TrEMBL record:
Keywords: ATP-binding, Hydrolase, Membrane, Nucleotide-binding, Nucleotidyltransferase, Repeat, TPR repeat, Transferase, Transmembrane, Transmembrane helix
Family note: Belongs to the fic family.
Record site feature (Important for autoinhibition of adenylyltransferase activity), residues: 212
Organism field: Clunio marinus
Protein name: Protein adenylyltransferase Fic
Length: 453
């Protein structure tokens, strides 16, 4: 009996010891888990806040100084020494009046160090002197200040050019308003207007899918839209891209053009139709993975929802309503592309959203030609760097071309307007608006659903 008691006394502490240790370890683990959870939650909430600074751009920077934007730190470049040597050589050539050689050396210097404030500023000054291009020069001064807001030489130049450039931009917008008002006097039910709108409809689809890499020609795109029959030698996805954009454009015409506001559901519905024939699973659904677009890294997938909510709120705000329609449409296009909310179809959806806004204010839908793809992407990249004005000018130029096309097609002008459809290098034919009109007159036109936009 005593032996049993002795054993019990010796073994009980030995059994209790690991239990106490286990409880302590569990307690510490729970505390650590709670700490990590709170940390990650706070961190994710921090990044899920609407980061306006990421998508806030400066379309009217009359204040000269760059506001609401942290100075960018220019990356360390291996060729910076060589670039500065070339800059000195270019300035010397400029001083001696050898402008042609100076231009090439300036361009070489900028290629070596594209973010160098001194090179950007001196090249801008040269463009003003040699090419009298004050708009391009002002953009270079702006870029220089983006990387060094305290660079006095660039600041001095911008103080001189900003108001002048602003006046030029406003004059162009005023001219666009006049052309829009002139076009509004044309009877929308006239045969000429219907033919013009139908051709613009086909051109928009042809160029918009072409920007994304679709290889269909204009005549093939027209055939798919009018006959709904497959074209030999083209992939199923290329056919579906055309049909999807056609479906989205019909939805825009039927539902959104007359609305005073655009909701998040409207944007999702546009994308659902754009991508519906190619990838119905991803159509109308925000991306769930990180994507990369050239040098641009869009926001994380968990940030997309709140950024899109903020974007839609801005688009229907008083601040947005006070912008000129061209500015509003261009900025809305850029912001949506910057957020890049979808896995695919962001460009087509953004261009449709831009045209929806333009049509709400009486402008015809803009056709951005696929031949301008590189220029189009370059201007978007410049907007990523903080200056959206070149992209707004790009949209304004495309709008003016479209207005001129409509005015020429619906009136008896004594001259011909440069047409939207440029010659296709692969095919022998050259598609123009007249070819579309001849097709209609010969009886090969499509159904009435296509005669809008």
């Amino acid at each position: 009996m005593k032996m049993i008691e002795t054993l019990n006394e010796n073994t009980i502490p030995i059994r209790k010891k690991p239990i106490v240790i286990a409880i302590a370890v569990c307690t510490i683990s729970i505390l650590i888990s709670l700490f990590i959870h709170n940390y990650l939650r706070n961190k994710s909430q921090k990044f899920l806040l609407p980061r306006d600074s990421d998508i806030r751009i400066h379309y009217d920077p009359i204040g000269i100084k760059i506001v609401d934007k942290k100075p960018k730190k220019a990356p360390v470049e291996e060729n910076i020494v060589e670039a500065e040597i070339n800059l000195k050589a270019a300035l010397e050539l400029k001083r001696t009046g050898k402008y042609e050689k100076a231009l090439k050396v300036f361009q070489h210097s900028l290629a070596l160090s594209p973010n160098h404030p001194s090179i950007l500023t001196e090249y801008g000054i040269f463009l003003e002197l040699y090419r009298h291009d004050i708009i391009q020069a002002d953009s270079f001064y702006f870029r220089a200040l983006t990387y060094d807001p305290n660079y006095q030489r660039a600041l001095t130049q911008r103080q001189r050019t900003a108001n002048v450039v602003q006046g030029i931009d406003e004059e162009r917008l005023r001219r666009l308003d006049e052309k829009r008002d002139l076009l509004s006097q044309v009877d929308t039910n006239s045969a000429a207007m219907k033919r013009a709108t139908k051709e613009a409809y086909i051109l928009h689809i042809y160029h918009s899918v072409g920007i994304e890499g679709n290889s269909m020609t204009l005549s093939e795109t027209r055939s798919v839209l009018e006959t709904r029959m497959a074209v030999s030698g083209r992939s199923v996805d290329e056919h579906n891209e055309v049909l999807g954009l056609d479906s989205a454009m019909k939805y825009v015409n039927a539902s959104l053009v007359k609305n005073n506001y655009i909701t998040l559901e409207d944007i999702l519905e546009i994308h659902k139709r754009v991508l519906g024939h190619v990838d119905p699973i991803e159509g109308g659904i925000f991306r769930r993975t990180q994507v990369y677009v050239g040098n641009h890294i869009p926001p994380k997938p968990q940030e997309v929802q709140i950024l899109m909510d903020t974007f839609v709120e801005w688009m229907n705000s008083k601040e947005a309503s006070e912008l000129h329609p061209i500015k509003l449409a261009a900025i809305a296009h850029y912001k949506l592309v910057h957020i890049h909310p979808f896995t695919d179809g962001n460009g087509r959806t953004s261009r449709l959203l831009m045209n929806t806004i333009l049509m709400r204010f009486g402008f015809p839908p803009v056709v951005i030609q696929k031949q301008q793809r590189l220029q189009y992407y370059n201007y978007l990249q410049m907007a990523n760097e903080g200056d959206i004005r070149p992209f707004i000018r790009f949209v304004a130029e495309a709008t003016e071309k479209t207005l001129d096309l409509y005015l020429w097609a619906t009136s008896e002008l004594p001259y011909q307007v440069p047409l939207l459809a440029q010659a296709e290098t692969i095919e022998a034919h050259s598609p123009t608006i007249s070819s579309g009109l001849e097709d209609d007159l010969s009886g090969s036109g499509g159904d009435g659903d296509a005669i809008r936009l």
